Q: What sequence folds into this?
């Protein structure tokens, strides 16, 4: 999932810079070879993206258990049920808790590391590799490792905390601690990607701004606040929105780390969709939930879009 | 004299901040990497070493047999074959479909090309969870649940890959193709003989992104796979962790097995990741 961020990153930085030729050169049309070249992708997109988007919307007004051949039209019932379902509100709250917990820490940490790595540091390449390693590994294996780190009796995290006098925390079985555990792991797993993006942003700031500020007697902190932060704003905004979009869709690490427990305290939206669709077989209701999530994500995507237009 | 002293003072301050910065970065890097080290160390311990408090950092004796135990406890070899077969198939498939589509968008002239291209891009904004349920239904109607097709076919096209390659193809000088066209090459030959050989870095970037993404994918495999023989490494590991809840020796050895190939691919191909970012144009 986190690689998606890279994907979106490519798009945003090219969307207007890319040379869609405005003036097409005169000459005969290549419609036949174009059709041949595009048809494999087009067919797959129609079957696996376009059709599902509409079918999902249709399903959200149906009651259907997948096994019966008939589904029943139930109007807005699924949506009404959703908004009057206390569990849905809890799940929404959990998702926002995860997002608002992860994104700021993630961004502060990744900016800090990128900033330090932008200085003259020995062994930069190895360091960057170490920071980036959690991003490329599978979320499933990562969550298995973290279950061991979080083990209440023999876990190394509780052992380290005991040095500073913090008593054993039952990370994954205490409803108050579980989401914090997921957030810590989520930050660890994803901050490397933002670090690389911030690093690129930092390198794009011309050196002479800093030199000019130094002549004026600006200190480290003042340079950071008055030059780095403002000039980095486009990058920061982009990372902010992308991180929000990714965090709102967290699934894998929750599934393996806590399975949504204890007492539903880490159940997030995609998990809720998965559960209703593939455990309770309520395809209509699950589709309604996914459309609500789609709506939330759409708002963020539009913000990003608008922001991109400002940028170029 | 005074100035010299000042300068010395300044450079001393500079050195000390540099030392602090170094220590800070090294500590953070160590903390980030520590879970990996702990995983590897634990994977060589026996249960007696594991259930020790305070924890012992090094195993009493290195139990390499934990790894063979993992392969005995679950068919990880089979999971591996499945994962690699699926990841390689999707990667090759994407390289083909994306090159073709990208070439059409970059070089061919036809009505509605740019709107169609933007429609391609727009599909990337659709979150996976919306297409997940109907995607499953489609595979169900095709009778593909629990088959390789289910794991491979939906991933064969990629808007991101098309976009990435199109951007790169547009930087290849047109003169190269014109010579080939004069020699009587058709579009497919131009793509195969001129464009592809000149686009290796972009193709490598796409291949690595795709391979890693598919190898690490979990939720799709979770939905479309039912039987043990069809499980991928990630799904197999998730089931394994449900079965051996606190068998940390096996769980850690299993995790190492699931992570290692990807880490190796990443270490080797790092420059393509960086190149990918450079391609995006932010760096210059």
A:
């Amino acid at each position: 999932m986190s690689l998606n961020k890279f994907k979106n990153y490519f798009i945003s930085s090219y969307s207007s810079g890319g040379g869609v030729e405005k003036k097409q050169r005169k000459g005969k049309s290549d419609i036949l070879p174009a059709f041949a070249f595009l048809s494999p992708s087009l067919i797959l997109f129609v079957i696996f993206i376009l059709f599902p988007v509409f079918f999902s919307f249709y399903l959200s007004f149906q009651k259907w258990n997948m096994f019966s051949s008939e589904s029943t039209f139930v109007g807005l019932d699924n949506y009404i049920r959703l908004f009057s379902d206390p569990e849905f509100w809890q799940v929404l709250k959990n998702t926002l808790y995860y997002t608002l917990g992860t994104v700021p820490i993630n961004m502060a940490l990744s900016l800090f590391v990128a900033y330090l790595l932008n200085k003259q540091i020995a062994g930069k390449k190895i360091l960057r590799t170490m920071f980036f390693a959690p991003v490329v590994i599978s979320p499933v294996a990562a969550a298995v490792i973290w279950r061991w780190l979080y083990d209440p009796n023999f876990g190394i995290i509780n052992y380290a905390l005991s040095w500073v006098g913090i008593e054993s925390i039952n990370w994954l079985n205490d409803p108050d601690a579980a989401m914090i555990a997921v957030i810590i792991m989520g930050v660890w797993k994803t901050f490397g990607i933002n670090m690389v993006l911030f690093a690129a942003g930092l390198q794009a700031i011309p050196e002479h701004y800093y030199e000019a500020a130094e002549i004026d007697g600006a200190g480290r902190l003042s340079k950071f606040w008055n030059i780095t932060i403002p000039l980095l704003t486009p990058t920061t905004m982009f990372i902010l929105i992308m991180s929000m979009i990714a965090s709102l869709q967290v699934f894998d690490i929750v599934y393996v780390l806590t399975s949504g427990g204890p007492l539903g305290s880490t159940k997030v939206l995609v998990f809720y969709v998965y559960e209703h669709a593939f455990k309770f077989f309520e395809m209509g209701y699950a589709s309604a939930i996914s459309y609500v999530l789609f709506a939330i994500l759409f708002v963020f995507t539009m913000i990003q879009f608008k922001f991109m237009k400002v940028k170029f | 004299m005074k100035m010299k002293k000042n300068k010395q003072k300044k450079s001393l301050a500079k050195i000390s901040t540099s030392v602090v910065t170094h220590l800070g970065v090294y500590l953070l890097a160590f903390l980030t990497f520590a879970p990996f080290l702990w995983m590897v160390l634990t994977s060589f311990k026996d249960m007696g070493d594991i259930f020790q408090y305070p924890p012992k950092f090094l195993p009493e004796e290195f139990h390499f047999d934990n790894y063979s135990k993992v392969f005995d406890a679950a068919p990880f070899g089979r999971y591996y074959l499945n994962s690699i077969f699926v990841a390689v198939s999707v990667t090759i498939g994407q390289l083909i479909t994306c090159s073709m589509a990208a070439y059409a968008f970059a070089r061919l002239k036809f009505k509605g090309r740019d709107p169609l291209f933007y429609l391609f891009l727009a599909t990337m904004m659709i979150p996976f969870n919306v297409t997940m349920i109907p995607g499953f239904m489609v595979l169900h109607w095709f009778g593909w649940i629990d088959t390789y097709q289910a794991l491979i076919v939906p991933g064969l096209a990629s808007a991101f890959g098309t976009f990435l390659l199109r951007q790169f193809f547009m930087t290849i000088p047109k003169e190269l193709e014109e010579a080939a066209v004069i020699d009587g090459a058709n579009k497919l030959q131009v793509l195969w003989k001129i464009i592809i050989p000149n686009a290796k870095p972009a193709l490598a970037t796409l291949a690595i992104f795709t391979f890693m993404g598919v190898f690490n994918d979990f939720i799709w495999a979770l939905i479309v796979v039912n039987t043990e023989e069809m499980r991928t490494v990630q799904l197999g590991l998730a089931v394994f962790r449900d079965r051996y809840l606190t068998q940390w020796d096996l769980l850690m050895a299993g995790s190492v097995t699931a992570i290692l190939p990807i880490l190796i691919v990443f270490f080797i191909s790092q420059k393509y990741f960086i190149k990918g970012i450079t391609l995006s144009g932010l760096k210059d």
